[in-house]
């Protein structure tokens, strides 16, 4: 059944400071809506215009996009900048509101649907909570490539997301090299928004390391990976889906709950870099690398299986099916 008359408006930003995670997962949701025939429009603040795309509605003040919000059949919000009062104001504009959340730390607010890939509980003001790893928003490539034969998983993947705001990639590469990790097993994935990407690329060429920059088919690289060192955020759910045990680096406070929940499941571990001064990072990076090198020598089969059980990559389909099956409020 198609939904060609439905108009979906998504409010999400991306920047070096914010990162790419909100935009990426909202685009997954947008694609799933589009596949059902809906028309989708992104709304982006002018301060994040450098990361906007053709067709986005770019605004300077909140009131500029409220008419779009009011007219939408379905309004989607994926933004930490909106507190409970601001979310309630959007709900008054449009009761068919889907909020994407990660931490449940904004107090009670009203919305029709609530999407959170963590298993958190919300108040009754959320009419339809959609929570847990099976609701994680992953691109279709992940459910496809998770079926790849794991015999090909031989690499140690190093990735710090689309922007790597703390510039951790190069220090980790250097630490792994100094400590003697075999370069033929190292796979470095650098996001398109990483500011020192060329410096990383030059170092990797000099030391004969594989470095991929601005990769779209992320799942193909993860399918080659036996273990990973990664920033937290949306990448956590991608690595879980692909069955890649990981040591995560926490770089923001809002990643704490996800790391706590998934570390307890046994497939990953984490180190907190928030509040760590630049001078302290070198020694902390070395400690992480030493731990990872010990883990690399162990049998990772059970951890990989535990990871795969958390996320199957079909979350976008589940969420869109639930939303479209609902009776929209006129």
UniProtKB/TrEMBL annotation:
Cited Gene3D superfamilies: 3.40.50.11190, Glycogen Phosphorylase B
Protein's UniProt name: UDP-2,4-diacetamido-2,4, 6-trideoxy-beta-L-altropyranose hydrolase
Lineage top rank: taxon: Bacteria
Keywords attached to this entry: Hydrolase
GO molecular function: hydrolase activity
EC number of this enzyme: 3.6.1.57
Source organism of this protein record: Marinomonas gallaica
